[in-house]
Design a protein that fits this description.
569 residues, 8-stranded antiparallel β-sheet, 6-stranded mixed β-sheet, 23 strands
């Protein structure tokens, strides 16, 4: 295998390299660190697809890495036969730098392989791409996006025929084909008759389908037109779909005008991630100005929803993804029960790092709760499994990172369009009942006990960042621990096995797909979990603290956090 310097030289000298790439690589000729980062590895294609910094090199997001990945996918589709090739692939993209260029490149590679490529003519979010895979009955889908990552990033996500992110098994086969392609410049694309536009009827069908997921039409009719809702698409792909569905329900919405524009620089925010209150700051400022009731924000590919509501003092507070999930879970189950539509075999699915508050709520409603690894594809796999077996009726799935999905009418991935619709009608429902959403959240805490959920990210840098993070997590699996300050450790879950080790040394198997994470069960139902991010060089630490009230939880969290950080060293 060539060293990174030789690969860099080969790229610079290749007549197939475009002028932009040639100039960019020439500019780093004296920067050994930059050359090593760009060419010392290949951009990894995992179960979440590819994600990386935009630029030229084998470890970057560029037209050549996109073509190579697409050729791997094309080889997989060709191995499935002519029918799969005719069914084809649907491709969408968001507002990030080069998203449209990468989407077109992917379509042309598929077309050159005789595979039908349906290409959206403008930005469309993740949930609409996921839905279109099933609506058009394609064999796969491609979404060009880096979700909530900083502006320097872009990515490439692949979906299976069920509309969920491609399974680990199928991904492994695609990766096998990709790895056989040594020459990045050998993959060519063609603009031919195999590239087709996505019919307009797909959008209309999506809105019609998700409209069936509404739960409180009476309340919406009564107060929706008077509701003051502020929405920001944060320069992303959510603008048209979110405003379209809210207008269909006749819910009043005011959009942050400065953040409607498709801006690949996301110039009005530091990071286009609605999990952060700062990302919602312009929406909150507008809401204060017009005395609005609620603020929504979606990320560039509109699969995550951030929400801010008024507290008991009338001040806007940004809810965490866990808090929005708790509110939606409680609201959905309440309304289904009130309408006598709560299925006897109902199930809610969440990632295992998502709030411990979900369990007592589900138990109270007589609904089963299932934990899966982090990544909405695992929730999608459960939907597919339940549809095939009939064992359960899927009601709701959510992750602490602001990802929510109700029902199976629309997407099979997290859907901020549906989540916006449900949150808006939830506000209408409580307004109709002369209650506030914040008041309902306090009632939930009073009924089930207070839980404080926090997560901390530790950033890793350099070419070996992912390897170093995984090694750190691996070291924790064999590191003994009895307590974290005031909390005794009841059991340790090693999700890479997957096994649960009790304090007495005995082990129990866990029925869950394997993933690299260590989860510490604490004695009162609290937990700490640590895992490497699968999409960016960050070590994620999740804390879920049960306590009698918010003040006690905050104090316990600080003690737990200090003890765990000392344990990591």
């Amino acid at each position: 295998m060539m060293d990174y310097q030789s690969i860099y030289k080969a790229w610079c000298e290749s007549p197939a390299l475009n002028e932009e790439g040639r100039a960019e690589l020439a500019a780093i000729a004296a920067d050994q660190k930059a050359i090593e980062y760009r060419f010392g590895a290949e951009l990894e294609f995992g179960t979440a697809g590819m994600r990386g910094i935009i630029g030229y090199g084998t470890n970057m997001m560029n037209v050549y890495t996109v073509r190579r990945a697409t050729q791997g996918l094309a080889e997989y589709i060709k191995s499935l036969g002519e029918e799969a090739m005719r069914r084809g692939v649907v491709i969408s993209y968001d507002t990030r730098r080069k998203s449209d260029e990468f989407a077109r490149a992917a379509a042309e590679v598929l077309a050159a392989n005789g595979i039908v490529a349906y290409l959206f003519d403008d930005v469309h979010p993740v949930p609409m791409l996921s839905y279109s895979v099933r609506k058009l009955e394609t064999v796969a889908g491609i979404m060009i996006t880096a979700s909530h990552n900083p502006k320097e990033y872009n990515g490439y996500k692949v979906y299976g025929e069920d509309g969920a992110q491609m399974s680990p098994e199928a991904t492994a086969i695609v990766v096998g084909y990709i790895e056989k392609i040594a020459d990045y410049f050998a993959v060519k694309g063609e603009s031919n008759g195999y590239i087709k536009p996505v019919p307009d009827s797909v959008d209309k069908s999506y809105y019609k389908k998700i409209s069936k997921l509404t739960l409180s039409p009476k309340a919406v009719k009564a107060v929706g037109k008077d509701l003051k809702l502020v929405y920001t698409p944060v320069h992303g792909s959510g603008y048209i779909p979110v405003t379209t569905i809210l207008k269909k329900l006749k819910i009043n919405v005011t959009v942050v005008p400065e953040q409607v524009k498709k801006d690949a620089e996301f110039s009005t925010v530091e990071v286009p991630n609605p999990e952060f209150k700062e990302t919602l700051s312009m929406g909150i400022a507008l809401a204060q100005k017009i005395d609005a009731d609620v603020v929504f924000g979606t990320d560039p590919d509109s699969d995550r929803l951030g929400v801010a509501i008024k507290d008991s003092k009338g001040e806007f507070v940004a809810l965490s993804g866990n808090q929005v999930g708790i509110l939606l879970l409680d609201y959905i189950l309440t309304r289904l029960r009130e309408e006598h539509q709560l299925p006897a075999n109902g199930v809610v699915v969440k990632s295992f790092v998502t709030t411990g508050m979900a369990r007592p709520i589900c138990e109270d409603f007589g609904v089963q709760l299932v934990d899966v690894p982090v990544g909405f594809k695992f929730i999608g796999e459960k939907i597919k499994e339940y549809e095939a077996s009939g064992e359960h009726t899927f009601i709701f799935g959510f992750e602490e990172s602001c990802g929510y999905l109700r029902g199976t009418e629309g997407s099979r991935d997290k859907d901020a369009v549906v989540a916006s619709m449900l949150c808006a009608e939830m506000v209408c429902y409580y307004t109709y009942k002369k209650q506030s959403v914040y008041g309902r959240l306090m009632e939930i805490y009073a009924k089930y006990g207070y839980v404080l959920d926090k997560n901390v990210s530790i950033k890793f840098d350099g070419l070996n960042a992912m390897k170093e993070m995984n090694a750190l997590v691996d070291s924790l699996k064999v590191k003994p621990v009895e307590k974290f300050d005031i909390y005794n450790v009841v059991a340790v879950r090693d999700y890479s096995k997957p096994v649960r080790r009790l304090a007495d040394g005995s082990e129990q198997p866990i029925d869950i797909p394997t993933t690299n994470a260590v989860y510490y069960e604490l004695e009162n139902g609290s937990f700490i979990c640590v895992r490497p991010s699968g999409t960016e060089p960050k070590l994620k630490i999740y804390y879920s603290v049960r306590a009698k009230d918010e003040e006690a939880a905050a104090k316990a969290y600080e003690k737990m956090k200090s003890a765990f950080e000392a344990f990591l060293k």
